[in-house]
Amino acid sequence: MDMMELLRFLWLKNRSLVTDDMDASLLHLKQIFPDMKVHAYPTGLEAWTWIVPPKWVVRDAFIETLDGRRILSFSEHPLSLVSYSEPFDGEVSKEELLRHLHSSETRPAAFPYVFKYYERDWGLCMPHERVLSLDQARYRVKIDTAFEPGMLKVGELVIPGETEESIVIVTDICHPGQVNDSITGVVVAAAIGEKLLRQSNNYTFRILFLPETIGSICYLSQNEDFIPHIKCALFFEMLGTTGEHVLGHSYPGTSKLDRVAYRVLQWRTDKFHEARFREVAPSDEKVFNGPGVGIPTINITRAPYPYPEYHTSDDSPDIIHPEKLEESRDLIFEILRVMDTDFVPIRQFRGPAFLSRYGLWVDWQKNWALNMAVDLIMLFMDGQHSVFEITDKINREFDIKIQYEEVRDYVNRMIEKGLVARSTLSQKI
Ligand SMILES: [Zn+2]
Q1: What spacing in Å lies between the alpha carbon of 5 and ligand 1's midpoint?
Q2: What are residue 168's phi and psi, to 5 degrees?
Q3: Which of 33, 96, 123, 401 has its CA 20 to 30 A from that of 154?
Q4: Does 133 share its domain with 25?
Q5: What is the pLDDT of residues 335-385, one digit of tens each?
Q6: Ligand 1 mean position to 250 CA, how many Å?
Q7: Which domain holds residue 19?
Q8: Are residues 261 and 336 located together in one domain of the fold?
Q9: Distance from Cα 182 to the centre of ligand 1, integer Å
Q10: Looking at the 3D structure of the chain, how many domains does it have?
Q11: Cβ-contact 191, 2 below 8 angstroms
């Protein structure tokens, strides 16, 4: 899968909450993943305290001078129209127009992203430098939009594992005409989905492509019985720029996923930041961690937030670094792999094992860290700790820098020698 190609395909679609372009975007993902389910929630549906909005239809929108010179057109950019703008057709004074015209002084050549999902008004957006050049007293405005009953759609790619217990990946497919926020999350999730489909997994993975907040509310509220089967969830977006990764912890911040993500970031990156729940770019993890839901959900992004092009048309493929998307993809995949392959080992011996007898002695000159860790690994294989927890404890409490994979490989060698058994409770960790 070419992440940049998918990004470019989705980029200029009018991906607001319920629109034809949103459907077209999900249809495109369904071509990549034919088994992907598309859930549809009708306009007016009460989802917990929320109500599914109507479909927003855009036929055309423009501003013209009275002599017919077009100075703004929806065909230029989807952000030229306020998302969910009401229709309007008439002649207005410049003052009246300015009350409905939005621009960004800090990004004067860009269209700002303005949305009025839950209030009704008409509005347009224009690069600020163009606003400054408006020199007529009156203008003609036409916004040919309509609100109709429709279906809010959520794409769900289910990758079945050994157990029904699920790890959910949540990504936002909304934000018309923008890329880093938030469809970098969509393309990274799609690339991870392809990799997960090629291997066998312990957990069932569910990858969600949905409009921010309301999509998560619909999915969870209509699947309440399933919530206890979701072990944890990851949300990610804003992964295409050069800043370091930011790990936004779940609420309460101490779940296994929090600890695995922290360690993988520490092992795989030179520098990263940690943030508490809601400290950075809050999004769908608010719903998953939220009141009465309680699924530990982390949020992975890149610094800074907000970045200079945030919520403007300058957030385009031009600011995306493909190698950064690949780096984030590999990192998140590694987090999932640790979560998925972890198990609880139980030692079948007493006293420190006679390692040389089994060919398990580690030469400190060849691998100092593992040599130091072996006594601790043997000690902690008491049936109470998973391989990851043993690794984490050794790093944290004994300041030995050793990675999960190395500990797991060593434990597997002990299993081969009959010294250690795998607990059948592994799925519950
Ligand atoms: Zn946003």
Answers
A1: 21
A2: -105, 135
A3: 123
A4: no
A5: 999 999 999 999 999 999 999 999 999 999 999 999 999 999 999 999 999
A6: 19
A7: 3-52+151-341
A8: yes
A9: 7
A10: 3
A11: no
Rounded distance from Cα 311 to ligand 1 centre (Å): 6
Mean pLDDT of the chain: 97
Q: Give the Å distance between the CA of 50 and the centre of ligand 1.
A: 20
> Do 163 and 115 have their domain in common?
no
Question: Ligand 1 mean position to 79 CA, how many Å?
Answer: 13
Query: Which tokens hold the place of 98?
Result: 């300015």
Which of 89, 117, 147 delimits the end of a domain? 147
pTM higher than 0.70 for the full model?
A: yes
CA of 64 to the centre of ligand 1 (A): 30
Tell me, in angstroms, the distance from the centre of ligand 1 to residue 335's CA. 25
